[in-house]
Amino acid sequence: MNERQRARRPGGRSARVGAQVHQAVTDLISERGYGNFTVGEVAARAGVADSSIYRRWGSLENLLTDVALTRLNAQSPMPDTGSLAGDLRTYAAQVAREITGPDGPAVLHLAVALSSSGQQGLEAGADLRAERTRQLQSMLDRARDRGEPAPDVFDVLDHILAPMYIRVLFGMVPLTPDYIDGLVDRLL
Amino acid sequence: MNERQRARRPGGRSARVGAQVHQAVTDLISERGYGNFTVGEVAARAGVADSSIYRRWGSLENLLTDVALTRLNAQSPMPDTGSLAGDLRTYAAQVAREITGPDGPAVLHLAVALSSSGQQGLEAGADLRAERTRQLQSMLDRARDRGEPAPDVFDVLDHILAPMYIRVLFGMVPLTPDYIDGLVDRLL
After folding, report:
1. How many domains in chain A?
2. Do residue B117 and residue B172 come from a single domain?
């Protein structure tokens, strides 16, 4: 893209370029694996100049962190079905759908990479998990308020989320509804 | 390194270069995160020429797969303590030590990346997990032969290994002995 083309573009260009670049990153991770591409390849795929990426994100590392945080922040809201079993089954099925969807493994790889990409990524990842833990805790608190026994929030991480994450990260898919419900029933 | 230096080297050079390059990869993953370095940087770190790496491994991707497989194949043997609780506690503590050691998170990242780096990596990862599953199954079979009730091998993956892997991948460390024993006790 040269200066003339850029000048011709109408408003909202920045958001559009952002979305194109984010999708290019997700596609390249899906196709080649995390870490197997350059800023130039992201730019070519997104149809923008390398310099646009460097100007906005500074480095591939920052761009990957931005994509990870944007995608992870866009996760579905917590369900509220009236029972803990219903909430956890719905939540687990929702997470399974997200991580086995077309961009799912790429987003999981981004999440994992976030925690290994220096202090900034580690802190951003920790903030994100803290927010998600808070939402999950609210769901468990609602159950306790209704008089239902509820597990610890870290038990949900260890025994519902971690098995699904690891199976997707290791390519042990699909996650069947029976498997997902089995994780929830076992925990409850 | 130029041709003259190479010619001067004594036997065993190939093994030594291999070990240097593998360690350089592991160090760079630990320091910068997976995917944040080039063949040139690995070569500089290992003190070898870029061309040595390309000649031997062909690409950064193949090199990363080789490091992953070598490290994952070097895992400790399965314990045989005489009781399933003893075996699983020892095994879990051993895995925890490996994945929280100096190279542990890097090796876990390599394992995860293996499954996202195309068909070859996916198959190599699957072979490796099949071998590990076979060893774990032998441990569970020994327990059953002694008359002890034993869980399914995939329950060990889902409820002992996956929680520890995810906590290390997300930087939620340390894994305390109480936490590790708790995972085993809960499964049994």
Report:
1. 2
2. yes
